[in-house]
Amino acid sequence: MAEEVEIEYFDLHTVHDNFDRALLQEDDVDIRAYLEAYNELYKFFQLMGSVFGFVSSDLKQKIEVLHALLSNDQDNNYASIKRMIEYEKENQLLNKNDFVNGARTLLRLHRGLDFIAEFLRQLSELDDSDNTSACCQDAYNKTLAKHHSWIIRKAAKVAMYTMPNRELLLKKVCGNHVQKNVDVLPKVLEVTADVISRTQTVYEIHQLHTLP
């Protein structure tokens, strides 16, 4: 008889606590804590299955790249977003052909986080019986869609049509802990907005927010 695999459900408390830690340094964002929060958010996409395939595989790759940079970082150059960008600019790593730089990689996660936050915000305003497809499409159009090709946008919108109502979606990703996650969602949205704002400001100061 096959051994039953225990599902690791999505936990917004983990997202909140790690993003909160990421903001301990004034006007900066701790990358390690940021990635810990993102690992939990990525679990949300995994639990949703192929619906978010248009974004989840790309996010996983970017998370792995930044984890690798952190693992090889002997001088804390990748301790925070500010330090990372300053280090890569000073050492002319942003346009180095044989180096996958952290600034461009984290910018992709930043754009993805903008989408996730907007989707969760709209999700929080729905009733249990409301379909999540329309709010997901709206969140996508306001955020990630502007950075995607026509083909990806088309595939994403087709995938979103299959999304369930709010009650079924939350049960799928949270298991028996739906209410616990719903209760902490306002605090998660607040701290995530701070992370997004700080990150955006750092990129704009260094004129890197439009990196291709």
Automatic annotation (TrEMBL):
Spell out the protein name for this chain: Uncharacterized protein
In its UniProt entry, the species of origin is given as Eretmocerus hayati
Superkingdom as given in the UniProt entry: Eukaryota
